[in-house]
Structures
1.
Amino acid sequence: MADLDVVVVGAGFTGIYAVHALRSAGLSVRAFEAGDGIGGTWFWNCYPGARCDVESKDYSYAFSPELEQEWSWSERYPAQPEILRYLHHVADRFELWPHIQLNTRVTVTTWDAATSTWTVTTDDGAAEHGAAEHGAPEHGAPEHGASEHGTTVTARFVVMGVGNLSELQVPDIPGLDTFEGPWYHTNRWPKEGADFTGKRVGLIGTGSTGIQIAPEIAAVAEHLYVFQRTANFAVPNRNRPWEDAEEREFKETYRDYREEARQSVLGVPVAGTGKAALETPAQERDQVYMERWKAGGGMPFFGAFTDVVFVREANDTVAEFMRDRIRETVADPEVAELLCPTGFPVGAKRLCQSDDYYAMFNEPNVTLVDIRSAPIESVFPGGLKTAADSYELDAIVFATGFDAITGPLFAIDVRGAGGVALREAWARGPRAYLGVAIAGFPNMFIVTGPGSPGVFSNMVVSIEQHVEWIRDCITYLASHEYGTVEANAAAQDSWMELVTEIAYSTLFPLADSWYAGANIPGKPRVFTSYLAGCGPFRAKCDAVAAAGYEGFALGGS
Ligand code: N01
């Protein structure tokens, strides 16, 4: 007899909802969380300027109509501390704390075929960082015994809520260990914050994170050097307070809106023109782009015209429109040209959002350094050296991203049927059936994994869909006297073939992005997101369930 029905790994948006959904279905559940607070990505990424680029009304749980009515967001786009407050509210409101064990990293999970259980081993490593607000209320003791830190617990099922972007990467730069000042990665921001007042700061990385933190550093630093390897597209947020009257009116039809979001492509309803960009006169096309630019947000650009994500020439019309906005914002034409992205379609690297990134380069204390033409060579005790120059620095900030998708799972020694390691099973790239189950790993579920819309969608919509599907699957097994569920290799193969076929009918795989593993030296380059969208994905998952979990082997009792 297993100690628990389900172990959930992680207490971010996924883990928190999984605990609630599975407990509500009558299952015994415990979530193990490595950090000393809940929140997952929003716990760790507490750097200055961290803010979600999906609107608050969308980036929130839909499972409880009461919750969505009672919670009020203060801004159009939620800042990291507010998201964390929201998640604490959810944990309080649904009494989840007794089922979440903090400061506990899962290190090994091993499938035991004889007992049809997973053995989950944890360490006792306390989280080394976390913002001041991260402290959780006093928790009750875990409901099952035998779970002191560093021990093992058995469970019938494991739900991996580890996130896709939780294994940070710091580039291997010679001499970094000799640097005399402090250096930081944005994903491990110190609890006490970092004071850059009057300092010379080097920022490496110009993705979503770098673009968010740069203006915050520039506002206080003596000088900010932005080391740019690849220029990225960034659109304005047009962030603003969410006014009471607007909120009240919106909430009257929240249920309908949620349903629309569930059935949409991106997990956010986006109105399109229904026309092809290449069949629309240039002036009319630019007017459409300008309306979207003025309204703020990235997703509306993908829905603007039917061909922008499929046809390079159509995408080029968006790209050129965005480059023109950079050129009209940045005063120095050379700097503006360096900030203009080229060589990949808009959206193939995550479209960034910022209201002040480009204008920041007009400030006298900000310098853009091109490390594409003159790469970083080394760090020395007082700064950083590129192939062209050397820079005296007091602090270095790495916004260099993550070993995405596979990294967080590989950080755990996951052993499936026959003791096969997940690392071996995914040696040539990640594969999963419906993004939720992996052949050879019975009774283990992943959430927003490879083969799902996951990272190409509003994550909260995808997370809820996955967790509810997993809950229903486990409930089905019990009511039909099955003890195990495992994805068939053939179903997984044909699903991943379809995923690849759809992906390569679009422009999204055409960049060296983390989406495809291209940001990590030596990592297999595989694009695994299901791009037909959230609505069609949900329909497929529902059909699989309705057919008695087609493509899965059900067994045991
Ligand atoms: O990471 P990234 P991120 N030398 O991988 C550069 C989500 N997110 O943390 O493009 C020099 O996108 C790298 O350069 P290049 C969102 O999904 C959301 O910014 O590889 N530079 C790139 O510029 C996002 O996509 C939000 O040439 C190096 C940067 O570092 C994802 O998280 C906010 C380098 C890494 O960009 C990851 O974003 C923040 C090296 N050796 C994040 N190695 C919101 O919701 C890497 N780089 C708003």
2.
Amino acid sequence: MKPLGSIPPGYLAGPNGRLRIGGEDVEALVARAGDTPLFVYDLGLIRARIARLRAAMPAGLGVHYAVKANPLPALAAAMRPLVDGFDVASGGELGVALAAGMPAERISFAGPGKRQAEIDAAVAAGATLNVESESEAERALDAGVRLGKTPRLAVRVNPSFELKGSGMRMGGGAKPFGVDAARAPALVRRIVAAGADYRGLHIYAGSQALDAGAIIEAQAAAVALARSIALDSGSAAPLVNLGGGFGVPYFAGDADLDVEAIGAALAVEIAGEEPGHAIELGRWMVAEAGVYLTRIVDRKESMRRIFLVTDGGLHHQLAASGNFGTVVRRNYPVAIATRFDAAPDEEASIVGCLCTPLDRLADDAMLPRAETGDLVAVFMAGAYGASASPAGFLGHAPAPELIVVGDGGGA
Ligand code: PLP
């Protein structure tokens, strides 16, 4: 038997024993989508989450949403009034952010390998480019001249420290992201001398950390680094984006991140500092609010082990299969949605419909006995789900994505 991750707060069974999402019965949601599989996002849970974050963080701290976590246009539009800015990672996401109504001056565009057309689009729109190299800065300056626009430029710094314990380290050594901290002051000077609108610094050290202490340490190091770059370059950074890295509990034994402790420490760290500060979070805002629903189309036995075969799989929800940045496969929080109030009484594996052994949604899990026709819920599907999965693989249809609005209870 392998443990399942803990089901996030805010999900309850209705009187019929079936899971409700945002107050709606799962079968009603399937009927609304037309068929399984589908994703459902509860905006009520996202709102409650962001309210908790705002209450925890120091007043005046910018709270930005990293659109890559879930770029569904309707979700981005719903997120716009809840946050102070959007961080985008491609020309496509820039389009989503602008279409969502986020003012260009509150959009920043980070990511290595920006194509000239993407740089031009950002400069033309008036979004901030977080430049990742000296050569990219030159391309952005040229774009400004060519388009007759003053480019808004920030410098992404590759910090010499990493975010300890993070699932994805993006600092602390040679990296394709940002310019090495030692070269940042010269690049700031070049940007200012060229007459660009210098917007500040972007220091992103990693993702998916669950240890508040590690985040507190990385934020303090980022504040200090920004201070020293400002001093060495002779230009105060109008905005210091301290990155994010706030993790969410996917697996058994993971604990909820103590954002209140992070906020209290950050308030002390930036008290009396001149420039504005911001954090950018993706999964922390949206992961727990999403559920992937898929139907069991076969129940079979092989060598006394039970396999529940679903009509969904890794083509929609790659991360739950363990093939999106994890070394050892562990079970996400998964449940039989149509028997949500039933006690587990059988060990079974839930697999997808793709003919590859990689397509697993739960391995050797204790679940209520389920039959063909039951619905499976895969939780933590609000971030890096639909858009981070190989939807074209094996020619299955994409999964529709629904937004519901619950009362936010339990977040
Ligand atoms: N910002 C940058 C620059 C990133 O690289 C990432 C993730 O890789 C994020 C934001 C979002 O990370 P998360 O969803 O873990 O908050």
